[in-house]
Task: inverse folding
């Protein structure tokens, strides 16, 4: 996957050792204030009037809620002897940072989602433009095209958070994007608050594997007592989310002054029982190119509430007159001492195609700006400010240098699965995985029940998760059950085949046509043909382990065990199997009707049944 490291900001207000908690705000307030700023005044005097008006509105919002209580419930502060806000560094540049690949198909995001599972579109090459045109006709827009909308602002935004003084913007941006998805798609309350600290911890520490047990993978957490400021990216957080650890309620592990200080000192004690105490699970993670697929980014903002991006932040590129940001310099000029193109992660929650190109510190090549949601909120900052919500030019060099909009499509935890089979337990702290060639056929072999002492007698395999490291990439998933040879992933019964095309790079959960009933101890395999990914042992960050009988790749007609034939430093394939425990209830009122050589069975249905075994 592509690397997108970013972490922190610079001096702006008072040193805050804690976090700002905003319990509620009037819905639509941010939208109204942003619309004020979209008026596009052309002189600084008028712009200052708008800024002052926004300050008044912001103060009103701070002091008034539905019950009349003060919105700012708690601000934990610590004096540092000066007026500067301290922000830790610790940026770790990715060795091959690059924007997500561009989709050339010209499809809407909705069309891309439908194409993810489409048995009629398969093949050994990337999809052609002609096929894309056919699909455009097959999957018409169900709503107004984004290019016909010149402005859009997400409604019901949760309150802006405060990461300072730690370099944790990457986790704040992911957590905020998940909150927005749950608000937009599931109607969650705008006051929801998920734990950034939980995501930070489980994105930087060795996790467990409840089904397969200790796989030998290790995140060298002892080297990262400074994980609060070492930096991170959406690849790291998406890996945590894909393994169902990362999105817990704020009270599970609060981003409080005591917890953040302990984490910074390497002394934070976390209850391992909370590792998988998530309130939402990742279904799909889309990585969309900001420049080449801008319309898809707009659709994602509208459909999911917001997207995560990164850019290079430096105060001199911010205009307080227009509450706008634009950096026109090449990366070699604004950061000559490093290969890093971005240093800060935020969210995009709206856009304005008509935002004047002259309303920046320097004139941009054209009109247009994204509305940014930042994570530096404090009692001293207005809602429409560099610290909370501001406009960034479509043409910002740092934004385009990061190049990727990360979209998190979640499902509530109660709609998830009981068991998740995988081997790649470690989280690569630099987000690096090897990209494998098209048409590679890879497989993971699992035993039903895994290595648990106690498990269900039967499980229903309902879905698989795969990682696709290209755009416009066809794939095929096959499931084999009852394997007779643990070294041959295709030695059993072909129980399911699903094909489709991943229009964008990312992680995807593929539902099977029908649940597959499997018995405890039975060997099964998930075989994936297409672009996929595997673990990589990147420097001292992580240690990956692989054992015989786990991951295989096909060479001609032979299956090669990765533990024996894989290259040094590489681990397991990132192929996941998702199951539900099968109930033990006996069916009632079974009747058999015979008709010559055939017979039909009928019985009373269970409302919650996913399938039946007779």
Result:
């Amino acid at each position: 996957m592509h690397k997108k490291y970013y972490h922190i900001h610079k001096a702006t207000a008072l040193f805050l050792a804690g976090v700002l908690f905003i319990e509620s705000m009037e819905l639509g307030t941010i939208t109204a204030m942003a619309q004020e700023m979209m008026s596009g005044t052309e002189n600084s005097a008028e712009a200052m009037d708008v800024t002052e008006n926004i300050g008044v509105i912001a103060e009103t919002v701070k002091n008034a809620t539905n019950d009349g209580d003060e919105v700012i419930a708690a601000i934990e502060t610590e004096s540092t002897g000066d007026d500067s806000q301290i922000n830790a560094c610790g940026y770790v540049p990715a060795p091959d940072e690059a924007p997500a690949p561009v989709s050339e198909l010209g499809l809407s995001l909705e069309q891309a989602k439908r194409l993810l599972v489409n048995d009629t579109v398969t093949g050994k090459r990337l999809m052609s433009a002609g096929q894309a045109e056919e699909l455009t006709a097959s999957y018409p827009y169900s709503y107004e095209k984004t290019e016909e909308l010149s402005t859009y602002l997400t409604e019901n935004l949760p309150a802006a958070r405060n990461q300072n003084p730690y370099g944790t913007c990457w986790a704040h941006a992911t957590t905020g994007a998940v909150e927005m998805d749950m608000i937009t798609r599931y109607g969650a309350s705008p006051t929801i608050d998920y734990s950034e600290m939980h995501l930070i911890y489980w994105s930087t520490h060795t996790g467990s594997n409840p089904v397969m047990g200790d796989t030998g993978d290790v995140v060298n957490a002892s080297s990262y007592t400074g994980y609060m400021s070492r930096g991170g990216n959406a690849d790291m957080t998406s890996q945590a989310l894909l393994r169902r650890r990362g999105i817990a309620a704020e009270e599970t592990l609060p981003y409080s002054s005591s917890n953040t200080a302990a984490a910074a000192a390497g002394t934070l004690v976390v209850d391992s029982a909370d590792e998988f105490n998530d309130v939402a699970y990742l279904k799909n993670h889309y990585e969309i190119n900001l420049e080449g697929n801008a319309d898809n980014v707009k659709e994602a903002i509208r459909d999911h509430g917001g997207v995560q991006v990164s850019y290079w932040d430096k105060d001199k590129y911010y205009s307080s007159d227009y509450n706008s940001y634009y950096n026109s310099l090449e990366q070699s000029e604004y950061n000559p001492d490093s290969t890093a193109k971005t240093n800060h992660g935020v969210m995009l929650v709206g856009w304005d195609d008509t935002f004047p190109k002259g309303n920046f510190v320097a004139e941009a090549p054209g009109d247009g700006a994204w509305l940014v949601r930042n994570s530096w909120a404090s009692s001293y900052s207005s809602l429409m400010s560099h610290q909370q919500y501001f406009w960034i030019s479509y043409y910002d060099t740092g934004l385009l240098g990061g190049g990727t909009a990360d979209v998190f499509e979640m499902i509530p935890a109660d709609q998830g699965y009981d068991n998740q089979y995988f081997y790649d337990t470690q989280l690569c702290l630099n987000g690096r995985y090897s990209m494998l060639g098209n048409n590679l056929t890879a497989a993971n072999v699992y035993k039903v029940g895994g290595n648990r002492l106690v498990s269900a007698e039967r499980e229903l395999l309902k879905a698989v998760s795969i990682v696709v490291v290209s755009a416009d990439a066809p794939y095929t998933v096959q499931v084999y059950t009852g394997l007779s040879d643990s070294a041959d992933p295709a030695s059993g019964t072909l129980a399911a085949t699903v094909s489709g095309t991943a229009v964008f790079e990312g992680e995807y959960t593929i539902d099977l046509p029908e649940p597959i009933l499997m018995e405890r101890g039975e060997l099964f395999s998930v075989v994936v043909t297409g672009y996929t990914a595997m673990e990589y042992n990147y420097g001292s960050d992580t240690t990956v382990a692989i054992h015989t009988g786990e991951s295989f790749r096909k060479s001609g007609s032979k299956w090669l065990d990765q533990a024996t034939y894989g290259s040094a430093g590489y681990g397991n394939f990132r192929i996941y199997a998702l199951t539900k425990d099968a109930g033990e209830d006996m069916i009632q009122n079974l009747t058999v009707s015979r008709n010559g050589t055939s017979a039909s069975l009928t019985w009373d249905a269970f409302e919650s049944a996913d399938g039946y075994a007779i």
Observations:
- The longest helix spans residues 44-63.
- The radius of gyration is 25 Å.
- The first strand starts at residue 21 and ends at 22.
